[in-house]
Design brief:
The structure holds 3 protein chains of 3 kinds. Chain A is of the alpha/beta class. In chain A, about 35% of the residues lie in helices and about 20% in strands. Chain A has 2 domains: about 1-80 and about 165-250, P-loop containing nucleotide triphosphate hydrolases (Rossmann fold, 3-Layer(aba) Sandwich); about 90-165, no CATH class.
């Protein structure tokens, strides 16, 4: 499915943010990447679809090395990788429906998209998805009229519109209140289950990760330090990942 | 999946009819109005030939008559400085009188009328009238640009006063201060920095226009430029244009400097970044 | 320094006192000669010239919008991350703004001969700098997040422009267009003085023949159009935003 081989990234030469990451994600279900702020979680997840250019290493996805792709072939590979963002990244002045359909922009020509001539099948699926994420009836609202939790639901629906075979989520709950955060994680876990795809989420909330993730990856200082089921994540390991002890109850 | 969603609208982009009608109307207008321009291939062909000739004669620029050039530029500069000074001095009381939150209606209406009238005519048209009134020369140009300055600064100054916080005014008034003290301590401090902003913009704009009023005989480098154009003295035209562009860019640098001195960074950012692009548009130069 | 500049300017501008003293009388004389207004002249010549002025302003603004968009895009560093290209685009915009529309008009009259075509091109070329600069700045202020999301979905460049950038800059774009049109209505009224069509040509000939009653009608017509343009702009903007 997805395999990272010796992936490294340094924004400034000599100070790597990612150190030689090798990782395989093939199972369905939620994989959570946890770690302290600034430890490279976001960089790792953004390297996978090349929103951030890795410095070295391979990103094997569906039989191709994403790190070597460019232009059209990169765009075609990206169509199969959905992404959910911390700040939702909706186009605020477009409607919910238009935001959902923007997940199909990799498939629809720019000219058709400009005239809003999306295939009826896409529109039908968009309405279905709105139902799934609990926003039925919001299709014609403008995105800037929604609350944070609602916007994230639209963000998730947009990613699922791509019919991805892999879903990435970069701190999807960090801008939300605890109750909404749980709802969003339930939604992501449900999508992983119902669509049978791996969902790779990075988050700093350990409790939330333990509750929803089937597999947890711990990062510290730009390197992997833990990889296993939630049950195996003990306090000693958490100290390695986050440093210090005082915060563990 | 819940119950089958019965009501799936065929087209979720209902709002898109109006822009289409507008676009169609625009295309029809462009065809209609464009037809009146009498564009033809023959005309474009001869035009391109003319342009080639024209540009080849522009270069190299001829600076041999630099005394004439410098004299004209200096006169333009003087017109701009004087007109800005006079305009600011006159715009202050007029703008104040036009502010609805400080003055009664019988004062604001005449003041507003003056401002609207001053803004409506291009400075060059006003210059024509002043040339008839006071004769050819820099005086006419100065008076014309003074009128333009009254219109521009007066309008923005009025708006600035109307946006001030009345709490501060009331606080000063509560001390039993006279009307002039209320103005000096309650109103002016709140609008001072923006006022400096408009004034430097106006100086910049006056500088641009002072190089043009000469076309109708109101002094400055414009007269020299127009004469050179009519004599087909294109290498001199080029020299004049380059000098004007230099002067305007110098003026822009100076205006930025003045703003940096008078308005500390906060209000400078205020002027440039304030609100929507519209706001920025309004504060940026216009002719 | 400012005071010195003012004093120096006063000393050198040759204010002939007799002329200045004479001015109010001259203005009064001018006004009496303008009265009564020659309204019969309006349908005759002024109306057509006025319409031509509006066409010059509108077509010039539209042409400027079309031409300024690519230049504005090239000037925006987040869209075209190449500093040399940005600088060239900015140079084009600065040159366009530094040349007054009257000078552009002289230039185009020289190239295409007198008439509305020269006026339209003059308005367009003067406006490119204004529109392009502000459009480029609006693009640079667009939020990168939504664009990133569209890239992640595999959207091609054109779709990122129309779905990501355009909705964000649309209000600014139309504000800039309306504002420039308002300015251009005023500007196009004077272009005729150098032969570039519109009501300025009627004004020029009336002035040369000292037909003051006609001059007054023309000035009144310009005044009315400018006021109408301002009202239209205010109304459209209120409705759009």
């Amino acid at each position: 499915m997805l395999k990272l081989n010796h992936l490294s990234k340094s924004y400034v030469a000599g100070t790597p943010v990612l150190r030689d990451i090798t990782l395989e994600v093939s199972e369905r279900g939620v994989t959570a990447i946890i770690g302290a702020s600034g430890t490279g979680k976001s960089t790792l997840i953004r390297c996978i679809n090349r929103l951030v250019e890795p410095t070295a290493g391979e990103i094997l996805f569906e039989g191709a090395d994403l790190a070597t792709l460019n232009g059209r072939s990169l765009r075609h590979a990206r169509r199969h990788i959905g992404m959910v963002f911390q700040e939702y990244n909706l186009v605020e002045r477009l409607t919910v429906m238009e935001n959902l359909l923007s997940g199909r922009l990799g498939y629809v020509s720019a000219w058709r998209a400009w005239r809003r001539k999306f295939p009826p099948e896409d529109i039908r699926r968009a309405y279905e998805l709105l139902d799934v994420v609990g926003l039925a009836g919001f299709a014609l609202q403008r995105a800037d009229a929604l609350s944070g939790g609602q916007r994230q639901r639209v963000g998730i629906a947009r990613a699922v519109m791509q019919e991805p075979t892999l879903l990435l989520a970069d701190e999807p709950t960090s801008s939300l209140d605890p109750k909404t955060a749980v709802e969003i994680m339930e939604l992501l876990a449900g999508i992983a289950r119902s669509r049978g795809i791996p969902v790779l989420v990075n988050m700093h909330d350990v409790e939330l990760a333990k509750r929803f993730a089937d597999r947890i990856i711990g990062m510290a200082g730009g390197a992997l330090v833990f990889d296993g089921p939630a049950a195996e994540l003990d306090d000693a390991m958490l100290t390695t990942i986050y440093g210090g002890q005082g915060w563990i109850q | 999946m819940n119950a089958p969603t019965a009501a799936v609208p065929a087209d979720p982009f209902k709002g898109s009819l109006w822009p289409r009608v507008a676009a169609l109307a625009l295309i029809v207008y462009v065809i209609y109005a464009g037809a009146q321009l009498e564009v033809s291939w023959a005309r474009i062909e001869t035009g391109l030939e003319n342009a080639a000739k024209f540009f080849s004669r522009l270069f190299p620029p001829n600076f041999s008559r630099h005394d004439l050039l410098v004299k004209g530029l200096l006169e333009s500069l003087q017109i701009a400085v004087l007109a800005s000074t006079l305009g600011i001095v006159l715009a202050l009381p007029i703008g104040l009188c036009a502010a609805r939150n400080l003055m009664p209606a019988w004062v604001t209406w005449p003041a507003r009328l003056i401002i609207v009238a001053s803004r409506s005519f291009h400075p060059v048209i006003v210059a024509i009238l002043f040339v008839k009134a006071v004769g050819f020369g820099a005086l006419a140009g100065t008076l014309a640009l003074t009128v333009a300055s009254i219109g521009f600064i007066g309008k923005l100054f009025t708006e600035a006063i109307e946006e001030i916080s009345l709490k501060q005014v009331e606080a000063v008034r509560a001390t039993g201060a006279s009307f002039s003290s209320v103005l000096a301590f309650g109103v002016l401090p709140q609008v001072f920095s923006r006022f400096i902003g408009f004034s430097t913009y106006q100086l910049d704009s006056n500088l641009r226009n002072s190089t043009m009023v000469g076309i109708v005989g109101a002094g400055g480098i414009g007269g020299t430029l127009f004469a050179a154009f009519q004599r087909f003295d294109y290498d001199f035209v080029c020299a004049i244009l380059l000098s004007i562009i230099g002067l305007i860019m110098l003026g822009e640098v100076l205006a930025t400097g003045v703003r940096a001195i008078f308005i500390e960074n906060a209000t400078l950012a205020d002027l440039f970044r304030r609100g929507s692009a519209m706001r920025r548009v309004r504060h940026s130069e216009d002719d | 320094m400012i005071v010195v500049a003012i004093v120096l300017s006063i000393q050198t501008v040759e204010v002939i006192p007799e002329f200045l003293a004479d001015a109010p009388e001259q203005v009064a004389d001018l006004l009496t000669r303008m009265w009564p207004l020659d309204f019969a002249y309006y349908p005759d010549t002024v109306h057509a010239a006025l319409m031509e002025t509006i066409h010059i302003a509108s077509l010039g603004t539209l042409l400027a919008l079309v031409l300024a968009m690519p230049v504005g895009i090239l000037a925006a560093h987040n869209l075209v991350p190449s500093t040399p290209v940005n600088l060239v685009a900015k140079l084009i915009l600065v040159s366009s703004r530094s040349v007054n529309s009257l000078v552009w008009a002289l230039l185009f009259v020289g190239i295409f001969g007198p008439g509305a075509l020269a006026g339209t091109l003059a308005i367009a070329f003067r406006s490119i700098g204004f529109v392009g600069k502000l459009f480029g700045e609006a693009l640079e202020e667009a939020q990168p997040g939504p664009i990133e999301a569209l890239s992640a979905a595999g959207a091609p460049w054109a779709s990122r422009m129309t779905f990501g950038y355009w909705p964000q800059v649309k209000p600014a774009f139309w504000s800039i267009a309306l504002f420039r049109w308002d300015i251009n209505v005023r500007e196009s009224a004077v272009l005729g003085l150098v032969g570039a069509g519109g009501i300025g040509m009627a004004l020029d000939s009336a002035l040369n023949l000292f037909q003051w009653t006609r001059v007054a009608v023309i000035l009144l017509a310009i005044f009315a159009v400018v006021i109408i343009a301002e009202v239209v702009v205010t109304q459209v903007r209120r409705r759009m935003i």
